[in-house]
Amino acid sequence: MPFKCSGGSTGQFTINLGTQNITVPAGNTDWQPTGDANSVLSWAGSAQAPNGCADGSVMDNSKGAIFESTVSQNPDNGALLNWRFKYRDPNAKGKGNVNCLDTTDPRRAKADVCGASWSQTITDP
Question: Fewer CB in a 10 Å sphere around the end CB: N or C, the chain?
Fold first, then answer.
């Protein structure tokens, strides 16, 4: 996640999503693991942003996120894959430091807190 500090410095931090395996039945064209953007299953992971501004100023990551992944099929059947992602920083929207994966937090299900739009769909290859 690239960010800029209100004091002028810049930086970035990484949210490591680890390895995830999703089994998709042959012929299935549904979004995986879900097409429901409000479902907790639609979040691949979460992390608390670090205090990246050494000068104590406020971090701004409103310019977006960069998503990098390696995706493979096993067995490789040559089928196309549609891929999309989303991210949300509730604290940047004045909603507090909410973990959008915490299903015990009632704020998690509110669109203005953890709601996020999907990225543009990318088809590979």
Answer: C
